[in-house]
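= Paired protein data =
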Amino acid sequence: MTDESKPCPFCGDTELVPSFHTAQPHLEVAMSCGGCDAEGPRVFVDAGGDVEQRSAALMEALKRWNIRKP
């Protein structure tokens, strides 16, 4: 990711992995911890959206990861 992320509040790992969930007609995007699989808040994007929309959703998911509380 281009922006810096905060460590996981549960295990302290700093590796984040994007996760995608299908919820027609939307796609849900979130950031997940690479150490314990904790998942941050999900962001909805149109399932038929283009790469730019999905990229914006990933950046929003990262922003939400950084402001969440355990």
Remarks:
- The chain has a mean pLDDT of 88.
